[in-house]
Write a structure and sequence with these properties.
The longest helix is centred in the middle third of the chain and has 30 residues, at 70-99. The protein is elongated, with a radius of gyration of 19 Å. It is mainly α. It contains 7 helices and no strands. It has helices spanning 6-29, 37-46, 49-63, 70-99, 103-117, 122-139, 148-166.
């Protein structure tokens, strides 16, 4: 069987999980997650490139020695996602509860500022902020398991499928 290499899953999953931890720490240390939240939002959009790059590099490395079918690429990508998840989710728990427990207050402040700038009615602002707070409270669990499906299955699978367009095994 031509299955993806477990060593590649571990190596690249470790790299990706550690990268997310370092990114979150950098955002906190530079205050891009609080004081400069407007600028930090743009980096939050760019961080999606980390899993794209890591999964592409892992697939490219595997393609140097074997051909990978679509499901093998997906298995490799999801394996990387699992390892990354096991590293990053516990770190996020520590970050949100001990390192920076006020992080969500900053998110609410930014949203309130945006709504005020858009001349939103005060009642609507209060309602929106309450809904955001309730959603965050409902979602808050030991490892925020609601992130498992997108982090481990959906995004890695999409990246693996897109890789089929750009990464092909070279003929020997």
């Amino acid at each position: 069987m031509n299955a993806p290499n477990l060593k590649s899953m571990l190596k690249y999953g470790l790299f990706m999980g550690t990268g997310f931890c370092l990114y979150t720490t950098l955002m906190w240390l530079t205050r891009l997650d609080s004081t400069y939240l407007n600028m930090g939002q743009y980096l939050d959009m760019l961080i999606v490139l980390l899993p794209v790059a890591v999964i592409f590099v892992a697939i490219k490395e595997e393609l140097q020695t074997k051909t990978l079918l679509w499901w093998q690429r997906m298995l490799l990508a999801m394996g990387i996602g699992v390892v990354s998840y096991v590293i990053y989710e516990p770190y996020l728990y520590l970050y949100h509860h001990y390192i920076n427990p006020d992080w969500f207050s900053n998110v609410l402040q930014l949203k309130e500022t945006e709504l005020n700038a858009a001349h939103t009615a005060p009642e609507k602002i209060t309602e929106t902020l309450q809904q955001m707070h309730q959603a965050n409270t409902r979602q808050d669990g030991l490892f925020k398991l609601s992130t498992f499906l997108p982090s481990v299955v959906i995004l890695p699978s999409l990246i693996a499928l897109v890789s089929m367009i750009f990464l092909k095994k070279k003929a020997a």
